[in-house]
Amino acid sequence: MNRYIRDGDNPDITEERMKATFDADRFTEFYHGGAKRLKSRREVEKYIEDHKELQDTHPTPFMSREELIDNSVRKLAGMAKYHKMIDMTNIEKTTYFLQMVHVRDSMAFSLHYLMFLPVLQSQASPEQLSEWMPKSLSGTIIGTYAQTEMGHGTNLSKLETTATYDPKSQEFVLHTPTISGAKWWPGSLGKFCNHAIIVANLWTNGKCEGPHPFFVEIRDPVTHKGLPHLKMGDIGPKLSLNEFQKYYMAKAIAFRIGGDELQNIFKKVSKQLRLGEASLLPGIHALSSGLKALVTFEVQGGIEQCRLACGGHGYSHASGIPELSAFSCGSCTYEGDNLVLLLQVAKYLMKVCAQPAEGEICGYLHKKSFATNSELSTHKTYSDHQIIQDWEHVTRRVVLQAFQKLRTESATKQKHEAWNSCSVELCKAARWHVRLYIVRILLEKISTAPEDVRPVLRALAKLYIFDLQVSKQGHFMEDRYMSPQQIDQLKSGISEALATIRPDAVSIVDGFAIHEFELKSVLGRRDGNVYPALMEWTKHSKLNQKDIPEAFEKYLAPIMKKIRAKI
Questions:
Q1: CA-CA distance, 527 to 12, in Å (whole number)?
Q2: CB-based burial of residue 91 (10 Å sphere; 0-12 exposed, 13-18 middle, 19+ buried)?
Q3: Which end of the chain has the smaller Cβ count within 10 Å, N or C?
Q4: Residues 461, 450: Cα–Cα separation, whole Å
Q5: Side-chain half-sphere exposure of 422, counting CA atoms within 13 A
Q6: What does pLDDT average to over the chain?
Q7: Other CB atoms within 10 Å distance of the CB of residue 353
Q8: pTM of the predicted model as reported, rounded to 2 decimal places
Q9: What range(s) does the Acyl-CoA oxidase C-alpha1 domain occupy (predicted)?
Q10: pLDDT tens, 15-59?
Q11: Angle of the 484-501 helix axis to the 246-274 helix axis, nearest 10
């Protein structure tokens, strides 16, 4: 049932894999969206395994910052040489290739592939594309996306960089009038890129027309010297970016399914947009904003739980957890601060409360007839319909309570003051809206899963959902919607789900199909031979290359020599 079993593996992990009640490969196919997508991932993994130039020379925790940059650029040169996996018509495969090569090290040109090229593809005219895209794909143009400023990130309308149109010369003059307006954080802008898509507020005829993207050459493409009137440089070291337990597993499934379904919805909406239909776009924007905020926060907490579960070894870089934690924590801020995004969700919800919107995403807010008490009798008979009904009830109440408070505050305060005074309730409403989406999509998707993996997936889903309900039981028990006895049933359901998942735990993680190049963890290695691997890992430390450290000879030895002479 588990193809990860090999001769020479640690017997304990082999014993765990032998307990599997499902085919791990079938689980992997479901988790990654089908056999075709899984095949694509494994093609990438095999390609990197076969090309040493795309791999780290030794563990990155033992590298200095300069060595990390050198290692990243070396692998990038290898990607240019072995570019078979880079296909801009298959963004998913290309992104996975970049991710596997660079993992969490500071990839010199990550934004070139992940931001610069997509923005160029979507925003440039046909004439501009014919001029710039071939050079950008070949590597002659190396670009980044420069939107964030030292003093402005999420607040896009307040960007200080200006682009003033001069009608006489028919040119745009870009200017950074203040220090806080300096472009800050765009990857590789300071040292490696020769072009940038710079987002600036456009001014023409004395009027600001709002943020616009500008394609700008910043370095000489031959000499790589910075162009006149530009100041560029490195902003210093960053936190990481020098570049499971059973509850982890349940959340991983829920978040993965929620994200995949959002992509499917977006594809449908994109088709409608091409036909001029945009009514569903605000709901998708709110949902994507909320998912980003909720999931990144939960992931950070989950990483910390993994560290605690590893005991003392969780502190070691050998576990891969410190690097993963430092890498992940930034996601709560970049690409939209989480609190700001939650308020974006809330803004949409308040509009829907006032006037119903099309689609199923917010349909629960205006249901005319709904239960006043939960229909849960036992956790074994708690149906998907009943679960969603209970979640809709609580979410509806939380959202409408925030709406009512906003209306009350707005009667006596300015609009922004009223909004600020309700921000706690608004963020809660946004979180419940996103949780409801995840619960609904999780149950829908699992109901279509292959029969042989459906039982373990249902156990994971129940663990995730019931645990949330118990941890938020105050909301479910408000107005006596749920009784203490019903909460006890949910607790029993959690215990049963844990017992069901336990023998399958290792095989579930195997089913995630996370390659060891990507995991970068001595503790998480497939063969389970952790202790010999930990000892081998220490050999990469430069301190272990000499018996006596230079610092000892330089500072301590002379002092000790003097002390001994006096004894």
A1: 10
A2: middle
A3: C
A4: 15
A5: 27
A6: 87
A7: 21
A8: 0.79
A9: 248-350
A10: 999 999 999 999 999 999 899 989 999 999 999 999 998 899 888
A11: 100
pLDDT tops 50 at residue 243: no
383: exposed, middle or buried (Cβ count in 10 Å: 0-12, 13-18, 19+): exposed
Q: How many CA atoms lie within 13 A of 359 on its CB side?
A: 16
Which tokens belong to 530? 């952790």
Q: In this structure, are residues 5 and 14 in contact, taking their beta carbons and an 8 Å threshold?
A: yes
d(CA 222, CA 259): 42
Helices 423-446 and 384-410, axial angle in degrees (round to 10): 160
Enumerate residues 6+ apart whose C-beta is below 8 A from 401: 425, 429
- Give the type of residue at 526: R
Residue 272, pLDDT above cutoff 80: no
| The two three-digit tokens of residue 342, written as one number | 């939650």
Tokens of residue 535, six digits: 């000892």
Question: Residue 91 carries which side chain, given as an amino acid letter?
Answer: I
Residue 537 CB burial class (10 angstroms; 0-12, 13-18, ≥19): middle
Residue 109: per-residue pLDDT: 65
The average pLDDT across 152-174 equals 87
Residue that has been written with the tokens 């203040």 in this structure: 178
Dist CA 123 CA 127 (whole Å): 12
As annotated, the active-site residues are 335
Tokens 């195997």 found at: 510
CA dihedral sign of residues 511, 513, 518, 520:
positive
Q: How many helices (H) and strands (E) does the chain have?
A: 23, 5
Query: Pick from 43, 51, 66, 60: which is nearest to 103 by CA?
Result: 60
The token duo for 205 is 């005829």
Residue 148 assigned ligand-binding role:
yes
